[in-house]
Amino acid sequence: MTRKGILAVLVVEDDADFRFLIGGIFRDIGCSVREAEHGQHALDLLKRWRPDVILLDIVMPVMDGFTFLARKRQVPDLSDVPVIVVSATARPPIEGALCVFPKPVDVNDLVQAVKQLAS
Fold it and tell me: Count of H helices and E strands in the chain?
């Protein structure tokens, strides 16, 4: 957990509407949320900010989720940040991801999974 017990969530998703929806849900429950539109954007954010959990899409332009996961594993300070994949196409298991939620995602299940990481 980050300062003051606030859970920090990074949403990596190329669909702006879905990114806004998921980010808003986690903001509404009191999380600190940052958003990235693709894997490279997420890696750039991670150079100066460390989330408690990353919610990751797989099919994205510039850098897809699989490439992001491979690059994240190469950074010692980031290798232990848990990742939950939220994808319409990906199926478990995915190396580097704790679990995979299919789109359309059950928001209550996703929130529960993130909260369990914080406990």
Answer: 4, 5
